[in-house]
């Protein structure tokens, strides 16, 4: 019998955080494609965007501190950023992989492997994602619920487990289903190696937090282009049901996404998970798919969703509020930025779909409408009536969100009634991204950002 060493007895648990970016999104990327899209929306001239931008999800990853000093001893926080599908250089990656999701399985294995290589019993797991990156994060969470967290030496078997699960999700043959379940039992049983690693006597949850923006399970390629509706069903997983092993789950949803091929995949909570104390919240925001998850140079709406997610995860992760406060560069008054129209280029072929917002409390999906939506001037009459009629679905802002709202005007947007000034301000924002000090490499210096200091003070006043 191996004796427990003093070091093992005193080991501090750590937090493993995986951030999965959306399709075509990478850390630094050149903005000429984005510039063409924004030029179509007549925001600013093409020649102003030949610069390197930073993926919005990279910035999310950078808000996470190396450790949580609110505890003694501090809790280490290890962050893994995963670039989006189709973000690698080359036409094949951009146009074939990006539009077909050909490497989605590889992304799932890569993210899961990072957890497996770093996990020790008692560690906390956090998963974040946008678009197909959100789908990746949710599949990783599903695998943790199914097989636990494998030891790094067992990762040689993961590809076989993945393929067997994929077949099981797709097959309609009962005999094949029984065969596949038998093959998987040594990995999915209650006493399997991975599940034994995630068992804890004082915790019923193996995944601490899942935070996603606009989960897209389909490939997002217009059916009118492929003429093959079945091409979108690449994976047979049903991840609508939120696993009972997940303690907290949050999703930001886009009210103004018109493409049927980008229909969102909501979480659905089971009654048993609710009884175990699981928390689920899915909130509707103004904007299209990339307005909510980040992807436009003018990112007022993405700022609001980011602060919503930060406000909800702040009790469980230590965040750099000074850096977070340096990100907003408002071009419009709070909540008033018009949603972008994503039906440009190849996506002009997409079928249109009006998303349905909640009209009553739902104990399965737990949907709400964000208060910032009430500031929109572009709401359709139907949506406007729904929100007014069902105001109980609009919860109050959390302290961090309210601090952003109160000081939004101080960041520079003009009065929304002054059209000429507003247009000039938007042009200034999108053509002057570095309004503060910067290093030689172009990285912004945010330590002296006044909003960041304010947010830091606000969060320090909260009880943890």
UniProtKB/TrEMBL annotation:
Pfam families: T6SS_Tle1-like_cat. Residues 14-311 form the T6SS Phospholipase effector Tle1-like catalytic domain. This is DUF2235 domain-containing protein. It comes from Mycena indigotica.
């Amino acid at each position: 019998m191996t004796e427990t060493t003093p070091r093992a007895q005193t080991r501090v648990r750590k937090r493993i955080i995986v951030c999965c970016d959306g399709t075509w999104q990478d850390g630094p990327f050149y903005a000429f494609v984005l510039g063409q899209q924004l030029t179509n929306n007549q925001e600013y001239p093409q020649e102003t965007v030949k610069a390197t931008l930073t993926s919005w999800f990279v910035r999310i990853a950078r808000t996470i501190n190396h450790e949580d000093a609110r505890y003694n001893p501090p809790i280490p926080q290890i962050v893994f950023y995963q670039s989006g599908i189709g973000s690698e250089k080359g036409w094949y990656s951009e146009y074939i992989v990006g539009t077909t999701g050909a490497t989605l399985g590889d992304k799932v294995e890569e993210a899961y492997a990072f957890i497996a290589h770093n996990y020790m019993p008692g560690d906390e797991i956090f998963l974040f994602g946008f678009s197909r990156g959100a789908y990746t994060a949710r599949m990783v969470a599903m695998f943790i619920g199914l097989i636990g967290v494998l030891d790094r030496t067992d990762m040689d078997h993961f590809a076989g487990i993945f393929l067997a699960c994929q077949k099981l999700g797709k097959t309609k043959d009962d005999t094949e289903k029984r065969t596949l379940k038998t093959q998987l039992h040594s990995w999915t049983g209650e006493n399997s190696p991975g599940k034994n690693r995630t068992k804890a006597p004082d915790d019923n949850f193996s995944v601490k937090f899942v935070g996603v923006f606009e989960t897209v399970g389909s490939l997002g390629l217009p059916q009118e282009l492929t003429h093959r509706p079945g091409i979108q069903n690449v994976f047979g997983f049903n991840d609508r049901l939120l696993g009972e092993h997940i303690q907290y789950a949050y999703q930001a949803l886009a009210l103004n996404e018109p493409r049927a091929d980008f229909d969102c995949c909501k979480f659905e909570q089971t009654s048993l998970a609710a009884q175990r104390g699981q928390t689920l919240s899915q909130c509707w925001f103004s904007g299209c798919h990339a307005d909510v998850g980040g992807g436009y140079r003018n990112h007022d709406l993405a700022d609001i969703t980011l602060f919503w997610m930060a406000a909800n995860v702040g009790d469980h992760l230590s965040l750099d509020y000074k850096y977070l406060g340096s990100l907003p560069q408002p071009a419009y008054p709070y909540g008033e930025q018009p949603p972008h129209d994503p039906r440009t280029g190849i996506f002009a072929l997409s079928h249109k779909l009006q998303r349905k917002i909640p009209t009553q409390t739902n104990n399965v999906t737990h949907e709400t409408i964000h208060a910032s939506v009430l500031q929109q001037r572009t709401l359709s009459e139907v949506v406007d009536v729904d929100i007014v009629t069902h105001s109980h679905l609009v919860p109050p802002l959390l302290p961090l969100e309210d601090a952003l709202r109160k000081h939004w005007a101080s960041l520079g947007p003009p009065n929304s009634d002054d059209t000429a000034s507003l247009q000039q301000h938007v042009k200034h924002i999108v053509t002057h991204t570095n309004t503060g000090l910067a290093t030689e490499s172009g990285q912004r210096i945010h330590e002296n950002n006044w909003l960041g200091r304010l947010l830091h003070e606000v969060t320090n006043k909260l009880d943890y």
